[in-house]
# Entry
Amino acid sequence: MKSHPCLPIAKGAIAACIALSPLTAQAGPLGIYEGGIDWEAGLASGGCLTIRDAVSCSAPLLNYLSGLDPTTTVTNGGYVLPTPQGALESYIVLTSGGGAQENSDTDPSPAEVEDGFKSNDTTNDDFFATGQTGSTAGNLNDPDNNSLDNLDSVEDADSLGTWDVGIEWLIEALTIDGIRRELTIGFDYNQPQNSLTSLDYWALVTVKDLDNQLADINYEIGQVTGLTYDAYTTEETFNSLPESSDFATVNGVTCIDDDGILPILPIPGGQCPAGYETAIDNAQSTSDTEIFAFLPELNATLEALLAQGYDTVSTRMLFGCFGGTASGSFQPGLGYLEDEGNGGETTNCETGGFADVYLLAGAPMETEVSTPASIALLGLAIAGIGFRRRMTAR
# Structure
């Protein structure tokens, strides 16, 4: 394998600029992925890529680039995280296969966060969608509030068809032993139902002010644009319908040229093209988490957003086939795409497989935060910078 400035060649060696350490148990709502993933180093190595406003990293590929077996778990010095369904109950779950997980028995209390959605259902739909144009639609029900109404009225704090969490509560959940940790998103596609083990997905994360004094701020997770996350600005708003071209794909396989001549190539699955000797399975069809994602700009500004007057973060997620694509006897997800009438459709289906999305606390941030008062002071100190990006009218 061709050498890389951030990654060692020797098997079993630990990368000099990518920290590796196991997840540790916590009394609070978020387990710690201690040290997390250095996604900046991962971007340089090819183990991570920018998907609009987000960064997505493949744990098996990072393992391989570090000289480890792709399946190496965190307890053995790798990146893959074992997350069986029972273990997910200790995390803040956005969506979980096989049934929604409870987020109500968590500290800090009250838990101003909703339960998780259910990603697969009894009708075997080939898609999962948390909502259409801001309302409940599709193949699921709206999750329970779990004291989210303590922020304001239930109608304001709970947006139908989205997963919602209070910003102040989220900051407290990420602050462990006085140290604020990086917001990390785990994605486990643990029972792929198609031969390519790939899945199309799109998400929109909206930061909201319940008093309607501040314009929404939107972050989009989707197709690669060629721009860095901080150079990309979404045009989507809370009620927007995405186009089929907005979707990204959890590629089942990443192809590696061991001679280092050809670039790293993610593909939906199957056999790698000529010239590529090694295939890395990014969706290992296990109960382990293989994909980790980050929203760097949102994570860095949570305290400032709270100080400005923002209250909640609402998330819409779409996984699978939309716009008329049929998969065998399964029904397509119709009515969710802006370009559906012009033949727009996605192709990599969900078809009853399990897709778990959950939050965990990553690497410590530079600023220590111990109390709500210090959170507010920190936010006020940097609020003057302003948020001229991603400001969109309701």
